[in-house]
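Entry 14. Structure prediction run on the chain below.
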Amino acid sequence: MFYVYILVCSDKTLYTGYTNNLESRIKKHNEGKASKYTRARLPVKLGYYEEYNSKSDAMKRESLIKKMNRNEKIELCNSYKS
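Output returned:
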């Protein structure tokens, strides 16, 4: 299984990525070992995620989400919390 996710950083910015192990990836982000962007904005928390059967599909969706504006990403996060 592959996951596309949005993290909410401590400064309220958003980070989008993909992984094949969501729990481990979030842990690595919070340890400062996953990305330069989130390393300076700890702690992060999961705002949204989607599951995919293929890496290709996950990467395509990640690209689409990254092209969304902030309000559209926040809407995704809000739908996840509902």
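The first strand starts at residue 2 and ends at 8.
Filed with the rest of this week's runs.
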